[in-house]
Amino acid sequence: MSLSSILSSFPTLRLPHSTQERLNLVLGTAAFIGTTTVLLPAAYRDYRTFKSYGQGGVPNNVIGWLVVRLFFQPFCAEMLDTEVYSRRIDAAEGHGKGDDGYLTLSEEQLTTRSPGNRPQVGPHVVPQRQLTQLPDENIKEKFRAAFRSFGLRNHHLVKFSRSNLEQHADGLFLADHLPITDLAVSMLGEVAHIHQGNDHSAHVVLAPADCKRVIEAGWGQRHGFSGTSAMTYLSFGTLPDLPAEYILIYAPRTKEEIQIVMQIISASVMFMTGREDTR
Length: 279
Hints:
This protein has 279 residues and is of the alpha+beta class. It has helices at 3-8, 19-52, 62-72, 83-90, 107-110, 137-153, 182-186, 208-216, 230-234, 255-273, and strands at residues 158-162, 170-174, 190-194, 202-205, 220-222, 246-249.
């Protein structure tokens, strides 16, 4: 078989001849290069941000990043609105003590943060982490110690176990002898955890009145899946949905703020157990 016959078996490449065809080719090539130039660096920066969170509820690698961006992110809800808590307070739902809640923080303590100066929280719905206003290593260590001490001191109400949601650190769970409420069932018994390997923010479950107070004071925000059916849908029914009362508490930056966050965690335990004898 001759070379010419072999070449003739391939489709003929048609080159643009007219001015319009050449222009279309140039514009298409420019658009492809421009889009690639913009999107690839942006995607890489987004991935680097995701990697900076460290361990969380999803793998901290390319696969985890793609899963979050492609499948989880479309279900992310607004995270600062408190109307849902106002409705629950008005309807007297749950055992959140009406308008009072369980928090005993003073206005002076609450105003050490402000809603206009919140830390920047990462753009990914999972894992939920803050990127700015981070504590130093000394404060992180003191916060972990305070959390551990609180759990051991309140063994009549809570126990330590591996967090169902974070899977990399221990969280506080209802003690085995306590009755399980519907809310506790939805959380698989988990009350609170801190992100010990990362920013040292925390997730807690608070009474509706306390959620409203904490968020409006600038101390936290809702999780992107809180109060939605995303968890059940994305886990094919293997995980329950996060209640609306599941919120993020920003990391403490000082010894005084550690005390404030620990009071919030104490209020979470009281809400989930229905008891107020925390120590």
